[in-house]
Design goal:
The structure is a homodimer.
Chain A (H helix, E strand, L loop, with lengths): L3 H7 L1 H13 L10 H17 L3 E6 L6 E6 L7 E7 L19 E3 L2 E3 L7 H18 L5 E7 L9 H7 L8 E4 L11 E6 L1 E10 L5 E2 L10 H10 L22 H9 L4 H8 L12 H7 L2 E10 L8 E2 L2 E10 L5 H15 L5 E11 L2 E2 L5 H14 L4 E5 L5 H9 L3 E3 L15 E3 H22 L6
Chain lengths: ~475, ~475
Amino acid sequence: MQHVDSYLAQHREAHLEELKEFLRFPSISALSAHKEDMVRTAQWLAAALERAGLENARILPTAGHPAVYAEWLHAPGAPTALVYGHYDVQPVDPLHLWETPPFEPSIRDGKIYARGAVDDKGQVFAQVKAVEALLRTEGRLPVNLKFLIEGEEEIGSRHLPELLEQHRDLLRADVVVISDTSFFAPDVPAVTVGLRGLVALELTLRGPRRDLHSGVYGGAVQNPLHALVQLLASLRSPDGRILVEGFYDKVRPLSPEEREAWARLPFDPEAFREEVGAPALFGEAGYTPLEQVWARPTLEINGLWGGFTGEGTKTVLPAEAHAKITCRLVPDQDPDEIYERVEAQLRKNLPPGVTLEVRKEKGKGRPVLTPVDHPAVRAAFDALRETYGKEPVPIRSGGSIPIVESFATILGLPAVLMGFGLPNENEHAPNEHWDLAQFDGATRTLARYWHKLAAALGPGARG
Amino acid sequence: MQHVDSYLAQHREAHLEELKEFLRFPSISALSAHKEDMVRTAQWLAAALERAGLENARILPTAGHPAVYAEWLHAPGAPTALVYGHYDVQPVDPLHLWETPPFEPSIRDGKIYARGAVDDKGQVFAQVKAVEALLRTEGRLPVNLKFLIEGEEEIGSRHLPELLEQHRDLLRADVVVISDTSFFAPDVPAVTVGLRGLVALELTLRGPRRDLHSGVYGGAVQNPLHALVQLLASLRSPDGRILVEGFYDKVRPLSPEEREAWARLPFDPEAFREEVGAPALFGEAGYTPLEQVWARPTLEINGLWGGFTGEGTKTVLPAEAHAKITCRLVPDQDPDEIYERVEAQLRKNLPPGVTLEVRKEKGKGRPVLTPVDHPAVRAAFDALRETYGKEPVPIRSGGSIPIVESFATILGLPAVLMGFGLPNENEHAPNEHWDLAQFDGATRTLARYWHKLAAALGPGARG
């Protein structure tokens, strides 16, 4: 019997060609112009799952973009894992900063460049190829597997809770396994045990009924752009602390043990600064960068616009000003409560001469912490250790995967976040890429993982 | 001999059709895409000036958009007036707020709607038709006239100072007459004796080298949008006072007489508030709205942008943030000095973690005050009084006509600002329009004005 590793090595070129096909679909969930592309991507993925040997592949429609399902259930008595991922990707603007077009995958220096290369099409594809390798070499899987790959992760998984409710039986499992995170560093494999939560809002300030001539009216009418900068500035102290009343009330303090463990990780603030290319690091006083990103909440302006933004000068006092804001949350902050507190603070601090409209955007998520000693997490450590010959580390991520909370609440599933990205691969930015050595490691590790999981969980409770 | 008023009444329909032709040209000087349209507009205007009976009409090229010149110099011994106006217009965005397209003139309720209807194509056209009416009825003009109609007023008259230097002899005159302002109110004719000056700048804050994922990095890297709102908020106190050091140092205080005279003008703050449609008025404490707009300087954000501004949510921590700012200046503030003070304050208040680039935009202008007792100003009062049967008022405007300063410094000309707009005609905004009764009054008043000016100035010093 051929070993999975040798099968993967032998078929690597073909697999990369197939990955490129997957990456060529412009599956941008945020833009309604790509609605048809989303359907085409889902159909391609369903076919790819069947080609790999999974069965009953199908499109699960939602009120938004569809999800894709497939299964392999021929391991009676063994545990059942649900593999979750997403085939949708972030928007690509600013387009002119891409060295090669975002939907024309290009391999340079052992990395594959494309929107979705690492977040998350590439990692989903690695999951598929791990299964294929096991089936083609061993003829069977050591566990029962169900794949659920959705199309709305980048817009907050709007319809997935509904879908989980609707297909509660179909999706029954013992654990959900997600490859949508990163190693701590190259050669430092990691399992992510904590994620920040998210709540998003958009606000509009309205002043005069119409855009005014800033000469004829300027000085006697509130300028919504001035009101906006004043209002937004009032939400954060100059040293980076969020000034929304009660914002930090439910934040679980870091234990001295966690702070010490994180301080031992190979993290160089100056290298981090160079990587992001900022003139200096900046964050809440009293916390290290890792603590700021992993264990402290944020209130971040993601977009700001109003007035004349074209070429040259237009002396306008505009009628409206707009901003988009997201808050990243940590245990035990509640998204709904934080939204209410932010909205209340905005209303309290509202400058005179304008009205305020605040809209909660879809896509909130609770912060998540998975126990480090859960057998499925320990199995992940074992698989990583065996593939890489290094001791993996339990880490957190500053990002959010809102769906992880839904898997816990709706399906009662613990989550194993075993991702194979590397830091600094430009997910959500121009020139997103994925190191192909990580692709190779991911397929090998994931094939091993299903054996470790079978051993760790024993005869499945729900298989 | 037919009277000018009856000539104007008789040809009104034909004149309005001709005005519509003029308004159909999309002569937006700020947008380079309209470069050819600017040339076509100038050519049309030169032909229209010749049709009206002016002579030697020609295009005066500049390094930017061309100006148009024409003359009538057959009044030896009489004074010479230079008529200045502009054929360029403001951009039209947001386009969707226009009830009829900006370059398809439409007459509704006795008003003509189009970009440029009042600012300034319509008023330039009234100047042309006043000359035509005099020449067709009286056979001659009581003064020598030179028309100089430029194409860069809305972008700060970038090349006009050069042009004035270059054609110093051609443009020799006793006074410059400009119709680019408004009545104080319907039935309250006015001559504008004061204008605010202008200085414009654009600033860019740069943080990380590329757009970052706000989850993965948020909390440890300065967000340029937060830095921008903090920086801009630091320039103005919540009660509307500009916090740039030395900003008010050279502001000439209002005399008690001026404040009393302005307090007697028919101005209703609540009607003003309703007109602009703002929830409340807002301005520097201790000053009335008229004082705020006419005699106090401003620092106004005209545009603001950065990050994701499209549909939905993108959790980005952007690399850059941008703002456009103009300051309106009053006597005796100096545009260069104010620019330096603003830039210095921006550098002083710059938050950590970002770099600042400030660029001075072209199109600055000094504030202007014309003596109320100048004979050419008194002639304007006489012409308005005779046409309207009301006592005109000397007013100021919060707007800027940077070129007025150049006429004074380069050609030594006093300026008479006799405009026929009405307040609230949406110049610089969607649905710009001009009351056609004002068009009628403008042509009749201007025809009279040349007689009054001939009498007031007597045999011209430079004719």
